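Q: For a teaching handout, I want to show students what a protein-ligand complex looks like in token form. Below are the inputs, and the small molecule is zinc ion. Please produce the holo structure.
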Amino acid sequence: MADLLLGQVIRFGGDPFESLAAAEPLTHGGVLVDQGRIVAVGEALTLRAQAPAARVHDHGRALISAGFVDAHVHYPQTAIIASWGKRLIDWLNTYTFPEEMRFSDRAYADDIAGRYLDIVLARGTTTVCSYATIHPESVDAIFSAAQSRGMRVFAGKTCMDRNAPECLRDTAQSAYDDSKRLLEAWHGVDRLSYVITPRFSPTSSPEQLAALGALWREYPDCLMQTHLSEQIDEIGWVKGLFPQSRDYLDTYEAQGLLGEGAVYGHAIHLTEREKARLIEAGASLVHCPTSNTFIGSGLFDMDLARSLRVGLATDTGGGSSFSMLRTMAAAYEVAQLRGQSLHPAQLWWLATQGSARALQSEGKIGNIAVGMEADLVVIDLASTSAIEQAAVRADDLWQALFPTIMMGDDRAVKEVWLAGKKVSGPGLA
Ligand code: GUN
Ligand code: ZN
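A: Here is the structure, written as tokens, with zinc ion included.
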């Protein structure tokens, strides 16, 4: 039976970084869902008449949106989120690597993968793009957990063959072999996509980067994710490790790891040459604002969203929150520090369609439009008294939404739907 969700519908006809008119909210709107997909979007009254037999879910003034897409996370870092007092390289050595060692144990990986997906679903995130650990079991764990929940998830084995503890190192050959085996086992199965995942240049030899570049040429419809120019110290380290490279991006480019399906996390301290090459190649960047402030990395230049595909992400657990609402708030604050004021429609788009586009999936997820997969969230715009007292003064939807963006948390997420099925909210067993 079809389901008809009624409320204030947020949808985008284009990119709000090009024109704010691309945001096309419906204040008395509806979304008709059947067999996992959105089959109609429009005025509530029209849809009621069009689908009289549909089960109606009337959410009143609440917002109906595509679920959030978190374009860069490390699910194995779930338990070390909010670890105190370190910058990137020390943070990796002190907290991250010891925790990632535990993922050789499949039962532990299963436990964290399930815990992680339940945490993000409760916060309205319906798709993530995750790094696993070097252990193939950690990839099986996240894909199995996503599969049993019906979630669209991107993930890949993190490859490292140097500058990491011995038990977290693979080799150029084993990284290639394991990645290929996992890719063939999982890519395109249900809602799962394999992502070729060198961690970053400091932990991969040029030979390993080249092996993964060769794998990507064999499977060009896969995405490739890695980190780029996150901290100044890291960039200096890369210079020392790759003396013949022109810059950080060149360490990837030289090994075939630059192209349209490349997704680079952070990308804060870019040179003019790097920006020009990224634009030319049509690569994607992912802004991780809570991480960039928490680890002390720097302020991403949101002007890049005008010439590149830019997604938004928590960077769990370098980021300090699992919530894309909190992440939108941090993106707003970081932009303010650079003299840019992001409109609520731009923030919402980054967390949904922008991230989906960065993952080359904008035709499937991240928007409310006919034919899209029905991954939906229902957002209460008055989830706390503090938010409500600010929202009541609003005279348009965006002003009403902004207090929830800045102050909202999991209490604002009333319902979550995955592929047309309600997976959290009232009325579930
Ligand atoms: N650079 C390389 N690995 C990582 C990681 O796990 N988190 C962050 N924030 N940056 C990285
Ligand atoms: Zn990361």
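A: Two things your students might notice: Residues 253 and 325 are 34 Å apart (CA to CA). The mean pLDDT is 98.
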